[in-house]
Specification:
By secondary structure, this protein is of the alpha/beta class. The chain is about 40% helix and about 20% strand. It has a single domain, classed as Ribokinase (UDP-N-acetylmuramoyl-L-alanine:D-glutamate ligase, 3-Layer(aba) Sandwich). Strands 3-2-1-4-5-6-7-8-9 form a 9-stranded mixed sheet, with helices on both faces. Strand 4, helix 3 and strand 5 form a beta-alpha-beta unit. Helix 1 crosses helix 7 and helix 5 crosses helix 6. It is globular, with a radius of gyration of 17 Å.
Length: about 270
Amino acid sequence: MTAIAVTIAGSDSSGGAGIQADLKTFAALGVYGASAITALTAQNTRGVSAIYDVPADFIAAQIDAIFSDLAVGAVKIGMLSQTATIEAVAERLAHHRARNIVLDPVMVATSGDRLLAREAIDALSNLLIPRALIVTPNLAEAAALTGANLARNEREMETQAREILALGPRAVLIKGGHSEGEQAVDLLIGEGEVVRLIAPRIATKNTHGTGCTLSSAIAAGLAKGRDLIAAVQEAKAYVTAAIAGADQLTVGHGHGPLHHFHGIWRQS
C-alpha cells in the first residue's frame, strides 16, 4: 500500500518552508503527500510581507476532500494563524478520526515574523495539542506555550516539555537548534525515558524551513509504519543532512532553504 501523509499548513511563496517544504520532504522520503492550505504568505528568504488566511470553512472542505478519498497514514500540522482555523482543523480531524498527528506549533518564521496570533495560543493548547501524537516546539515556541522564559539548558528544556506533555499529547520533541554550543540537542519526552538526539551544529545561515521539514519527516516515517522513536531518529538524521547540504544551493539573499533533495540530486 502506498504510504500517504497530509500536511495542513501555510504556503511559503519562496518554496523553503510550509506546505512546499513538507511536500518536498514527503517526496524525498518516499511518501505520497497531500495538502490542505491554511494560509497564503507572501514571503522570501528575507521575511514575510503579507499573510492571507484561508477561510475556515474552505480549510474544512480541503480536509474532508482528502480524508474521504485517501488512506492517510499520518498528519503534519503547521501554520494555523487564527483561532477559527484551529477550531476547524481540530473538528474535522476528530470527525475523520485522524491518526499519527504531528503538530509543529509554528509561531514565528526564521526571519522573526510572527505567524500565530497571540490569542490563538490557548486554542492550540486546548483543541489540538491534546489530539497530537507528538508536538515539536523549538525553544521559543516551548516558552510561549508554557509562559516561561527561554530554556537555557537541558533541564529547563525537559521541564517545559513535560508541561506541554501534561496538555495531552503522547510525546513532545523539544528542539535545541536555537541554543548555543557545538551540538544541537533535541529531547524526546513521552511515556518512557528521555531520548537525547544529538547532531553537530552546522555553520550555515540557510536554515529556512528547518522546523517544517523535521515535523514532516516525522510524519513521513509514521506513514511508512515506523514507531515514534524510529520516526523521530530518522527525521533528525534527514534534517541534519539537509542542513549540511544547504550551502550547495544558491537561493535568495537571506536565510536560504535546506537541501531537501540532497541525496537524490547528488546521485543524478
